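2024-03-11 09:14:02 DEBUG pipeline.ingest accepted 1 chain
2024-03-11 09:14:02 DEBUG pipeline.ingest length=105
2024-03-11 09:14:03 DEBUG pipeline.predict start
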Amino acid sequence: MVNDISQTNGVQGPSSRRVRDSATTPLDKLPSKSPSEDNSQNSQSVNVSEAAKTLQKIEIDFNQYSDTDDEKVNAIAQEVASGSYKVNPEKLALKILAFDQQLPE
């Protein structure tokens, strides 16, 4: 379901007015905070733990490696397209049995 929020039929809540006012105010006209106010209860900050940083690095490193051997896939695709691809029935049967044994009963 999609809601079109651009057509509100003139209904405005207090929060929508605040967002619109701050969104259309030039940056130089917005009230500035002093450094002491940045440490107040109103300031927002995000602290990323070392574990989260490590996980992010692992994810980036992991995404650099492909799960597939593109050369092998392309070679098989060419064999299938040309009609020369041969299925090894014994190897296929062993793979099916191994997969079946991994399934929960």
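2024-03-11 09:14:41 DEBUG pipeline.report Residues 12 and 66 are 50 Å apart (CA to CA).
2024-03-11 09:14:41 DEBUG pipeline.predict end
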